[in-house]
């Protein structure tokens, strides 16, 4: 009887669903039984087409289709188009009778009478179709023998879904701000204190709360900021082949950029403490903003990769897979919290994208408030000192006492130290003499600053293989917003132009020749937001301790070829000039050969330079040869042999003698192992290094 009733119900529903929505799917036949849907297919509505053939003799089993053996073998692995209708349920799903707890005995009715009422569902907090949310909402109180009654409240919710009308929302909402940062021991970070709402529709959207802002298109404008504020973007087609994209941001900046050169101790993997731009010792690094360069190579974060970092303590530790030595060069770029002033930010981007060209401009402005906040409260004396000091940071000091930094203790020439010893009533300071003691009788005042940068760019491909690009930039940097002294050098400019032509040897494009020419000019007063050149630019050009700003020119020419993936070659020559301070010419060459199991790469650079400022000439040679052999055919295990060498000869122009800072080394190493980014990896090696240093004459 139960089966008969179910059959009658299905038959009646089949007639009802003949007008249901028609579904179309593109599938690949990977077996002779293929599930089409999660609901039961209405019999007689299924049509399947493979190419131009209509498949027949198909058997329907609830929500799956069974292909005949011949049809399955013929079309296995091929794509098909299926059209069908379904019920709004699955007939194979189990159905349960009401439980005894749902039956209520009726005392005043006939004997044995019962009433059944289905359980009413809990009303949704946000009743919107297509919107998924989760979170918690709580109210409570706490009381103790040493405290009064305290009411507690907590609200936390995450939203994601469709609001209707094509509008999408993603949100993380909370009434508390956790002062917790992600641990810096993994490659991917999990943000704990990110609160935001993002609403989008089509190609437009708006974000309010915590978000990240990264560098736009261009060469000179480089940054990565963590912000709290408002950001909006939109994109639309102005013509059939042109798209206009605009983005704007108004926010409070959470961090300040810094670049630090870490002094490495032999065999010490860390931790190494980072400091701020003004040698602040106790800083908090914003999670995910750091870049660590080790001998010019960008490292990856993670205990099983290259390094770990404690953001709250601003300490970096290198992993055992990245051993450090006394000659290791480590550069760390990061953003750190600075609560001296409230820092606001405005940014705008506009990009026109055509069929074979793109153009646009970018605007960035970041400024400190004129009033000290947080840990720095400026009184009238501080403001007067800052107004009279101008851009001279050495004059922005006030009579007080502060502890010496480690760098100041090492460079103690000409500094008067004060000893601060604790007494019963506090700390007593007394004069100890030059080069002695632990404190200075001065306190550094940090002035509020402002950075602004405007760039405009154009990239075009007029013909096949020809690329042309250009960019101009104007900067304004006010080191001290409280003073008008020294503002005549705040504005600077820079430009970058390039052209590249590639000629293909065959129609497949696997073999070609190319040539390129690039020019970069930088004015004396130009101040970028963050460094835009490579981390080891100063070392590559032997600029050394020349920090003075001056007009710069940088010419680059290169030509090269590649024959498929097996043979590649390139030769380039560059000229760099920092007017009246440095002149250098660098040549570089590269050759790569590859086969199924062998790879050979040879690179060499040769620099000759002259510095009137340092009264010296240099000859800098850097060859490198690396050979790789894949032991297994799947390239899972490889053996490498590499020879790396440098010879940097520095000679004075006043006396034709070699300077003590001249140095040279050659390194030969062998390694065998697998890729360290895999779950199971190993590596073994052996190296021999010889060093040579200049002697005093």
Structure characterization notes:
The structure is a single chain. The chain has 697 residues and is mainly beta. Helices cover 6% and strands 52% of the residues. It has a 21-stranded antiparallel sheet, with no helix packed on it. The protein has a 4-stranded antiparallel sheet with strand order 1-7-3-4, with no helix packed on it. A 4-stranded antiparallel sheet has the order 17-23-19-20, with no helix packed on it. The radius of gyration is 35 Å and the shape is globular.
Quickly describe the structure.
By secondary structure, the chain is mainly beta. It is built from 5 helices and 41 strands.
Which properties best describe this structure?
52% strand, 41 strands, 6% helix, 21-stranded antiparallel sheet, mainly beta, 5 helices, disordered N terminus, 4-stranded antiparallel sheet, single chain, 697 residues
